């Protein structure tokens, strides 16, 4: 089977006439952790949002170019948004559990996609809570509100909720920056475990985090992709002057 990937071609994004993403050409590999790094405001989140058409919620946005997910241009006129989003699990900076029980949080997406059988839903809940290492912590209180969990647990719950709809990719926007070091480490370790099954794309502003877990690195500066390479190559043998400066901490 052909490996799924995200291919970005001549992607330009304008917001209020500001040129935010400048002619981005890039292939994001599947079954690897890709870290998008670069200084604040360089367009990391905008690039991530372009992968599941989240930018369309922004006012005065204009997007040109292609994003091919699994060979399909998600910006083609007849492309359907639910179908695209199903391929992408999204993890935001702050955990955002739905205002319902732990159980219902996990099954929310499945129910939208038509799974109603209670026994099947129970199996799904246990499977994905185990996948994120939460089962033993919460199995006795599946029907209590998710909001009562700790922030770190909530973030793992949100990850489990995303996984439950069986996406191909996980998009994580600084998904550990609001967490304490222990919870943050748990999420990092989960990403490392999950990369055998999913393409994980994470925006991070900590270079150290990228050094710890990235397989592939995309370095952006002022809306442009300056350099994209396998992590070992990127960190040990950067090609571009700007990359070298960024890695030595000349700017951050
Ligand atoms: N909704 C919006 N309206 C206007 N400008 C926006 C909007 N979203 C992003 N921008 C602008 O686009 C540029 C890129 O923003 P983006 O959030 O993608 O950068 P980033 O690299 O993720 O930054 P950070 O690391 O600070 O989160 C910034 O100049 C920002 O001000």
Task: Provide structural commentary.
This protein is an alpha/beta fold and 252 residues long. It folds into 2 domains: 1-79 and 167-252, P-loop containing nucleotide triphosphate hydrolases (Rossmann fold, 3-Layer(aba) Sandwich); 88-166, Helicase, Ruva Protein, domain 3. The chain has helices at 44-50, 81-86, 102-112, 118-131, 135-138, 151-163, 181-194, 207-213, 231-236, 241-247, and strands spanning 6-15, 18-28, 33-37, 61-69, 72-73, 88-91, 169-173, 199-203, 216-221, 224-230. A 6-stranded mixed β-sheet has the order 6-7-8-3-9-10, sandwiched between helices. Strands 2-1-4-5 form a 4-stranded antiparallel β-sheet, with helices on one face. Strand 9 (216-221) and strand 10 (224-230) form a beta hairpin. Helix 6 runs parallel beside helix 7. The longest helix is centred in the middle third of the chain and has 14 residues, at 118-131. It starts with 5 loop residues before the first strand and ends in a 5-residue tail after the last helix. The model has no long low-confidence stretch (mean pLDDT 94). Bound molecules: adenosine-5'-triphosphate. Adenosine-5'-triphosphate binds next to helix 1. InterPro entries: AAA+_ATPase (IPR003593), ABC_transporter-like_ATP-bd (IPR003439), ABC_transporter-like_CS (IPR017871), P-loop_NTPase (IPR027417), PstB-like (IPR005670). It comes from Mucinivorans hirudinis. One of its GO terms (biological process) is phosphate ion transmembrane transport.
């Amino acid at each position: 089977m052909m490996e799924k990937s995200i291919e970005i071609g001549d992607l330009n994004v304008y917001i209020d006439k500001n040129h935010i993403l400048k002619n981005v050409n890039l292939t994001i590999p599947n079954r690897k952790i890709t870290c998008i790094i670069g200084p604040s405001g360089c367009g990391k989140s905008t690039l991530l949002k372009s992968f599941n058409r989240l930018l369309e919620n922004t006012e005065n946005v204009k997007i040109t170019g292609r994003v091919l997910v699994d060979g399909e241009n998600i910006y083609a006129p007849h492309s359907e948004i639910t179908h695209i989003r199903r391929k992408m699990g999204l993890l935001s900076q702050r955990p955002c559990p739905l205002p319902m029980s732990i159980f219902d949080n996990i099954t929310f997406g499945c129910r939208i996609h038509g799974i109603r059988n209670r026994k099947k839903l129970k199996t799904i809940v246990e499977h994905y809570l185990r996948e994120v290492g939460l089962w033993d912590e919460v199995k006795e209180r599946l029907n209590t509100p998710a909001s009562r969990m700790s922030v770190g647990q909530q973030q793992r719950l949100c990850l489990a909720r995303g996984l439950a709809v069986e996406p191909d990719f996980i998009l994580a926007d600084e998904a550990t920056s609001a967490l304490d070091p222990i919870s943050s480490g748990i999420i990092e370790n989960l990403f490392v475990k999950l990369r055998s099954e999913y393409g994980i794309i994470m925006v991070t502003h900590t270079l150290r985090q990228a050094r710890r877990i990235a397989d592939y690195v995309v370095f952006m500066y002022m809306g442009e992709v300056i350099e994209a390479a396998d992590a070992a190559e990127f960190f040990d043998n950067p090609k571009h002057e700007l990359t070298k400066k960024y890695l030595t901490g000349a700017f951050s």
